Amino acid sequence: MERTGQVDDLLIRTLKIGDVEALSRITSSIIKKPTVINFKRIIEEQSKSSGVQSFVAELRGSVVGYMISYTLSGGFGIDKSAWIAIVGVDPRFMGQGIGKALAEETFRYYKEQGIRNIYTSVRWDSTDMLSFFKTLGFDRSKFINLTKVLK
Predict the structure, then answer these.
(1) Contact 56/12 with Cβ under 8 angstroms?
(2) Is-contact 66 84, C-beta < 8 A?
(3) How far is CA 145 from each of CA 7, 41, 131, 139, 148, rounded to the nearest angstrom?
(4) DSSP structure string for 59-89
(5) β-strand pairing of 55-59 with 62-72
(6) pTM, whole model, 2 decimals?
(7) What's the pLDDT tens digit per position in 29-46?
(8) Letter string b/e over residues 61-77, b meaning 16 or more CB atoms within 10 A of that residue's CB
(9) What is the pLDDT of residues 103-151, one digit of tens each?
(10) Of 11, 82, 91, 146, which sits with the fewest C-beta atoms within 10 Å of its C-beta?
(11) Residues of 101-118 as b/e, b for ≥16 C-beta within 10 angstroms?
């Protein structure tokens, strides 16, 4: 895959258990505090499911980005679909096409699986993420996110 104007030597590969520390480091650098996401549990659960659903971007041997997704069968009145749950790119490498490369590999994978609908959820005030997903062709869906706070 040619990536004009972007980082050279970028490798997109399947997420593996050895990536836990890198994913935590990237996430912490984005949110500027320690992450509470249990990446080890996420990776272990995905390794038990059929098929590869998440990818990392590796540059010269170091993980610089990741995209974690999953499939949902028959939920919310739709056929089998894919959901992008978490995405992160090391802030030092943002804007260089790494997120796009991860998304393209994710899209390719799901297309090969016969899945046509991919969803994600983004905070309404997260303009950078909204812009990122818009450039990938995402638009508003028929869903409205609802929340309930348990006390």
Answers:
(1) yes
(2) no
(3) 35, 25, 19, 14, 10
(4) ETTEEEEEEEEEEESSGGG-SSEEEEEEEEE
(5) antiparallel
(6) 0.87
(7) 999 999 899 999 988 888
(8) eebbbbbbbebeeeeee
(9) 999 999 999 999 998 999 998 899 999 999 999 999 988 888 888 889 9
(10) 146
(11) bbbbbbbebbeeeebeeb
135 within 8 A of 100, measured Cβ to Cβ: yes
Length of the chain equals 151
Measure CA 75 to chain center.
20
Distance in angstroms (rounded) separating the CA atoms of residues 138 and 119: 8
The domain made up of 10-135 is a member of CATH 3.90.180.10: no
User: Which segments of the chain does DSSP mark as H helices, in order?
Assistant: 20-31, 39-48, 98-112, 127-135
